[in-house]
Amino acid sequence: MTDRIKQFLADNREDGPRLVVDLDVVRDNYRSFADALPDTRVFYAVKANPAPEILSLLAGLGSCFDTASVAEIELALAAGASPDRVSFGNTIKKEKDIARAFALGVRLYAVDCGAEVEKVARAAPGSKVFCRILCDGAGAEWPLSRKFGCAPDMAADVLERAHALGLVAHGLSFHVGSQQRNPRMWNRALQVSAGIFRDLAERGIQLAMLNLGGGFPTRYLKRVAPVQTYGQSIFRALRRHFGNRIPETIIEPGRGMVGDAGIIEAEVVLISKKSQQDHVRWVYLDIGKFNGLAETMDEMIRYPIRTDCDAEALGPCVLAGPSCDSVDVLYEKDPYLLPVTLEIGAKVLIEGTGAYTTTYSTVGFNGFAPLKSYVI
């Protein structure tokens, strides 16, 4: 926790869970990405945290933006980004939304099939498209599914179709899985990408851009390598597979940009046991899966939780949220260790929560208000 967040919490007491994000950390993270991959453009993944203060800071620093919807495009433009610094990176878009993005000046679109190419060709003629390929997400704490991307052997045909329809077949993209703790996982995807570049060159189509995706981790309970290590590993893989003809590259950090910049302050609502013989307490917080902690699904993301009595003896707990829904349990398969002296009404700090919390919070499930957010 930064001193600025600590002071804000001390000076501004209030009820209910709240997220506090320190812009100084976001600024430092952006500069780390820019330094680690100096020849690569940063496209911040707006979905991670679309707070206007964060977007304005990043726009001022020179960041570009990866967006998933027209609403996110409008947020990026309102923050000061020009349309040429915006990518419509969702592979699943309504044609009217493509047309709206085109009217706003956006000229870079993700695709992963012929049908999406045809929509872009009709609604955004002459634009640049990049084809997302499926990628092994092994090693990621939040693996991505087959929902986005096509098999690598299909990508050349998708981009050839784009070229035939008057679009610019601009490049490829992939994603090695969110919270990817292995810096070497980009190597195989880059090897496959280089093969597709060669295939299209033989068809007379010269690709110019490679989107390396996101996946850059933030610190939770497990140690992660610094972003410089990722940059070095990725650059070595680029040289290995592309030689001296490395294409334009971009990255799309989200979690790695804002995750460690935020802390959620929450409160213990109830502590109970399910039987007299039960040795594991149930600890209920005033925040759960539906209030911002959706990434505890299947216990994939385990957040560091701090209390005022962490120096005392610890005991196993099932950690759950406040809603009347049986799936609103955060950690049960692997019980969480919390102080045995923890009491109802105690405040807890959930660290590493700057990303994918406010954007996953419902607008009022069970009548609970959306997660409050403060950017300082």
From TrEMBL:
Cofactor(s) needed for function: pyridoxal 5'-phosphate
Task: Work out whether the entry's keyword set contains Transmembrane.
Answer: no
**GO annotation terms (biological process):** putrescine biosynthetic process from arginine, via ornithine
Q: Which GO terms describe its cellular component?
A: cytoplasm
What catalytic reaction does the record list?
L-ornithine + H(+) = putrescine + CO2
According to its UniProt record, in which pathway does this protein act?
Answer: Amine and polyamine biosynthesis; putrescine biosynthesis via L-ornithine pathway; putrescine from L-ornithine: step 1/1
The answer to whether UniProt assigns keyword Oxidoreductase to this entry is: no
- Would you say which domain of life the source belongs to? Bacteria
Kindly identify the residues recorded as the active site: 324
The main enzyme category here is lyase
* Gene Ontology MF terms: ornithine decarboxylase activity
Which InterPro entries does the record associate with it? Ala_racemase/Decarboxylase_C, De-COase2_N, De-COase2_pyr-phos_BS, Orn/DAP/Arg_de-COase, Orn_de-COase, PLP-binding_barrel
Protein EC: 4.1.1.17
Q: Which residues carry this modification: N6-(pyridoxal phosphate)lysine?
A: 47
Q: Which SUPFAM superfamilies match?
A: Alanine racemase C-terminal domain-like (SSF50621), PLP-binding barrel (SSF51419)
The record ties this protein, via Pfam families, to:
Orn_Arg_deC_N (PF02784)
Question: Which keywords does this chain's UniProt record carry?
Answer: Lyase, Pyridoxal phosphate
Every copy of the Orn/DAP/Arg decarboxylase 2 N-terminal domain together lies at 25-258
Family membership, please give it.
Belongs to the Orn/Lys/Arg decarboxylase class-II family.
Q: Which PANTHER family does UniProt cross-reference here?
A: ARGININE/DIAMINOPIMELATE/ORNITHINE DECARBOXYLASE (PTHR11482), ORNITHINE DECARBOXYLASE 1-RELATED (PTHR11482:SF6)
Its recorded name reads: ornithine decarboxylase
Q: Which organism is it from?
A: Roseiarcus fermentans
- Lineage of origin: Bacteria, Pseudomonadati, Pseudomonadota, Alphaproteobacteria, Hyphomicrobiales
